[in-house]
């Protein structure tokens, strides 16, 4: 078929390829409805350039759940067969992604991944890994997908969300015009206008109608396909039906072994309804396959699956995913359990959690009674769900697995399942329940001892640390370390040292770093990048919580760099949220808001969302920006459910600030009081001080014993001492609050200057009202010039980024120029847009150009 009305898209692809030849990679998303011509467009482009650049193509098949790394393995196999075999067997997905990138980027290459809406999660992870690194890779990554099948919760949509800030060229393939349809229908006795109206210009539909030879235009594409099929012999139609229940197609050799007649196969190919490529047979389009499949009666379709399953089980090259698919189609429960369990194990080994969860669920749904296979499937399903963020489903499956294991006489595995259920419960935001679960697991596993008991102790220590019951965390964690050390259990040792070191940040800060470095050492020994991220993150967030900002920023930046380099998005999001909080407390509100907004705009962990939403609630309340109530409600709802001091305390303070800066009194003292009770229980001086200060501001007389020194001086009325302490720590807004509480006219003037400099418009209004009631006039209204080096308050680095935006550079280009990560540039650009109060890069660039012209 002639490629009509695609010149613009071809021109764009040619331009992208030119950049790739020059060494700069690009990602192109080609979207459109089924049959619109995405593959035809890409094939034409590839065909035109195949002699001058390497082309690697991989396809995703319409199998649910999709086989792990399907397209990735196919592409690696086109480079070297051993690379594909290694990818199939290597459980380290990061290593596979790194190998894939190094291989495709070894020379200028066009990588095409077709039908990514069907991709498995592991393939999407690899594509995200590659896309994030295209700035320095001579690769044109083209992915095609059905845009009408990718909703907000679709895995592809989520994966694309992880690429925010990465330049992606998008091509939306449009339908054909009436002129193009008429050109295709030339020489055929058919009404072109009617054909365009019924097909809406869909090229596949148009060509199927033309090829069907029907006198009238059918109402659906399926009718066109069936019209062609009716012309075939009975044997050829049976061949079509057989292949229609094999979504990936079938090799010619295997099809013959499945009793298809060679003459019938040839007839289907000659008619054009099937295509043959390198000995592989399949339908010209998935729409055609489905049209044929849906005409096969249910009982006959089940018989076809049974026939194929029986034959495949005798083939040495049959894969577990393929066997599981036909077992489901045959409704063979025994075969479903056997083959789905194998497929689940394969998927889990490759980190393909969504497919693993689906296969494990199939085992659970088709098992009867109590069996080791059912227990394994429940454990696997729980682990996959927990990794996917479905903590509630994980809890249910861990509980069921523990019950089955108890009945099978395996109390140790049952106890471990209950430990994992505790972890999942905490991830679901149900802190008190998590503590109850681990207490029960400890009772059982204490009798067992060894690594299982050490694991339970490390989980109990972690929960105590998260609740800021630091003394208990240290006691339990050290017990876990002693026991795990005897067992050589590196993972457990890393978890236990993490808990102890994080608790020491609040008990003996100077010892904490050494302990957490031990956690890093054991995480690396265990080859667990996620545990390394946890240790780095705890160093950063813990330092921030005790107001050691220099250390906090250093460790948080290391966490972000480590996590981004290994695609550990959850860890990167949590560290980014905490960096936002640190910047907030240092008075760098625009940067803090930009980072917090970036976190909440993505699908991020609950704990990251709590921190980021609290930051946004505080900034918006102080500034009077819209959205403060929404951010506060989300932060409080999520924080309260955890029951953890470190989550509840900042959210309770945000509740108080929201009321206070709105011009009213603080009425939600119940939140402050319950959080203060927790702070006293765990002797957390910084929490005691901040919560007590807001209760005192609300007219209460709180118990402030044990408050951190700056708060103790503040609450005792030693305002100059408190102000000096906050200035030395680097917390300008706390200095404003101290002077506001001090209440003298001179102190209020200082508070007003500080509030104006920070852009705290609501604090400014409240202080100005108080001064006016005292007869003070001629008060400053805006930020003083001496407080701002740049007219918009940009930092030196932000000014540099603005200049590069003015040159028309992308975030990836800027990252290369400044030798930083793309994500870091994303943050700077967000801060620049917010400070300049513009909504687009183009608007910011115009301002930057104007600034340059006046210098």
Oligomer: single chain
Give the CA-based shape: globular
Low-confidence stretches: 783-789
Work out the strand percent: under 5%
Q: Describe the largest sheet.
A: 5 strands, parallel
End-to-end separation in angstroms reads 59 Å
Strands in their spatial order, largest beta sheet: 2-3-4-1-5
Task: Round the Cα radius of gyration to an integer and report it.
Answer: 31 Å
Count all strands and give the number: 8
What is the number of helical segments per DSSP (H or I, 4+ residues)? 45
Percent of residues in helices: 55-70%
On the 0 to 100 scale, the average pLDDT is 88
Q: What structural category do the secondary elements indicate?
A: mainly alpha
Describe the fold and architecture.
- By secondary structure, the chain is mostly helical.
- 68% of the residues lie in helices and 5% in strands.
- The chain has 45 helices and 8 strands.
- The strands form 2 sheets. Strands 2-3-4-1-5 form a 5-stranded parallel beta sheet, with helices on both faces. Strands 6-8-7 form a 3-stranded antiparallel beta sheet.
- A hairpin with a 2-residue loop joins strand 7 and strand 8.
- The longest helix is centred in the middle third of the chain and has 18 residues, at 470-487.
- It starts with 6 loop residues before the first helix and ends with a helix.
- The relative contact order is 0.05.
